[in-house]
Amino acid sequence: MKSLKLIRHFKPQGAGVFMGQHDPDLDGAPISIPSVSADLVITSPLKRAHQSAALIFGDSNFSMNQSFAEICYGQWDGKSWQEIQNQWPDIATAKMENWLGVTPPDGESWSDFSSRVLTAFKEIEIRDASIAILAHAGVNSVINHYLTGEDPLVFTQEYGEVIEY
């Protein structure tokens, strides 16, 4: 891989909830669109990611990879933390104590999610190309952890932010 750009999608409608695989459109046009070039652009299949890719790269200049979808929070997808605490107080407390080790009801474990993302990433990292992945904070934190060793719990990325490696 010549270079890698991890891009987080622009702000979705309903931001502020556990978005997970909840699949809203973008919340209007972004204030600014980064100027990014890449030989290969791959997005999550979720609307907020491929709509963001279309704004940055044009409608036909990218492909989607199912493995780059955000983690599935199951019954927590689309819910606020307050709703989660009210409906699942014991699981919410356990999650706060062991964020990566506790899985929401009907959700995807962190281990399964990380494995899904890294399997897909390892298949593309061997390509001799500049690559842009337009996905989600969770997906990008897994890839960043793999590349840098940084704890995924301290990884942060704003909507529309580009991180280059």
What does this structure look like?
The chain has a domain at 1-26 and 39-46 and 121-165. The protein is globular, with a radius of gyration of 16 Å. A five-stranded mixed sheet has the order 3-2-4-1-5. The protein has helices at residues 47-57, 81-87, 89-97, 110-125, 137-148; strands spanning 3-8, 40-43, 63-64, 130-135, 162-164. Helix 4 (110-125) packs across helix 5 (137-148). 33% of the residues lie in helices and 13% in strands. By secondary structure, it is of the alpha/beta class.
Key phrases:
globular; five-stranded mixed sheet; 5 helices; 165 residues; alpha/beta
N-end to C-end Cα span: 10 Å
Structural class: alpha/beta
| Strand-residue proportion | 5-15%
Radius of gyration over C-alpha positions, nearest whole angstrom: 16 Å
Average predicted confidence as pLDDT = 95
- Estimate the global geometry from the Cα principal axes: globular
Largest sheet: 5 strands, mixed
Q: Given the structure, what is the number of helices?
A: 5
Strand line-up across the major sheet: 3-2-4-1-5
Approximately how much helix is present in the residues? 25-40%
Number of strands: 5
State the low-pLDDT regions, or none: none
Order of helices and strands: EEHEHHHEHE
